[in-house]
Design goal:
alpha+beta; Immunoglobulin-like; 2 domains; five-stranded antiparallel sheet
């Protein structure tokens, strides 16, 4: 029986597409992350073609990392959450279980920051779900019902005190109600509305955001969301962790953001991720983490635009 040429063509395209998807999927499940690269540090997928590491870099199974005479780096095993220092003139390869030294110097795994980092790989894997570009409803479609979704639960503190939600349009204002206290929030420009919170007691507080137009309520959620206000004794472990991250990766906004996101400070994490990508606009690897914060905050337009940018950058990498 002879297979029709058109069917052969379709099968070939399908298999090629599946191959690309499988390759991309494997690359997006990192085992290790390089941070604090100094001097000449390079990575390779095949041991032949090498590219410079100039910012945080995720590495997957089969990839390699090397340093020259002036090069050093920290390598985080995302499976165990441990950190190792890679010295000059060294070569490592990434295995399914973590990091393997081929030559040179690689310190013993440091477990002191393990609880700060061990969930990073799981959160990154989850973040991949939100990088798909989906069609969104046009905000200018006045026939749609007004509906505002906010984050379901968020941690805030005196230092990281801002709530954020989607801007429904310049014609709308908002009434933020925390417990039984209403707070008027004016209309805003841009994709999101932000409001600083203060004066809460430590612990959990219900909140809702009502959408107002010309002084009349046009939308109110059926269920409240939750603010976890972190202060006093509860804040001390967070501050300790921030100091440890700062010692591990000085000035690394991404690492600080990842730490805060893991503890529920989603707006603060988003801000640090945004700063990181402003300073490192060509970084593709880490962008799903920013996209995840947009998703968690229900900033749908920002999530979509960032996902489009991410997919475009991935495509350019494959060229």
């Amino acid at each position: 029986m002879t297979t029709h040429p058109i069917k052969l063509f379709i099968m070939a395209v399908f298999l090629a597409t599946m191959g690309l998807v499988s390759t991309a999927y494997a690359e997006l499940n990192p085992v290790a992350m390089v941070t604090q690269a100094q001097g000449n540090v390079e990575y390779s997928k095949d041991g032949e073609k090498w590219k410079a590491v100039t910012r945080n870099k995720l590495l997957s199974e089969g990839e390699q990392l090397r340093t020259a005479a002036d090069g050093t780096a920290k390598v985080i095993n995302q499976i165990s959450g441990t950190v190792q220092d890679m010295g000059a003139n060294s070569l490592i390869k990434i295995t399914a279980n973590g990091i393997e030294k081929v030559s040179g110097t690689l310190s013993e795994p440091d477990k002191s920051a393990g609880d700060l980092l061990e969930s990073l790989d799981k959160r990154f894997a989850k973040a991949q779900r939100y990088t798909t570009v989906r069609r969104s409803v046009d905000k200018n479609d006045k026939s749609k019902n007004v509906k505002l979704d906010t984050i379901k639960e968020i941690s805030l503190s005196p230092k990281f005190s801002e709530l954020a939600w989607s801007n429904m349009g310049p014609e709308y204002t908002y009434e933020l109600v925390i417990g039984d206290k209403p707070i008027a929030v004016p209309s805003a420009t841009g994709e999101m509305v932000r409001h600083k919170i203060s004066g809460l007691t430590p612990g959990k507080h219900d909140f809702v955001v009502r959408v107002m137009q010309n002084g009349q309520e046009v939308y109110a959620p059926k269920k409240p969301s939750t603010i976890n206000w972190v202060d006093g004794e509860a804040l001390k472990p967070v501050e300790k962790g921030l100091k440890e991250i700062q010692a591990l990766a000085p000035g690394d906004d991404f690492m600080m953001g990842a730490y805060l996101e893991d503890r529920g400070f989603t707006v603060a994490a988003m801000d640090l991720y945004r700063k990181y990508f402003k300073d490192n606009p060509k970084d593709v690897d880490m962008r799903p983490m920013l996209i995840k914060t947009y998703h968690d905050l229900n900033l749908k337009d920002l999530q979509k635009s960032e996902a489009v940018q991410y997919q475009k950058m991935l495509a350019e990498q494959q060229e």
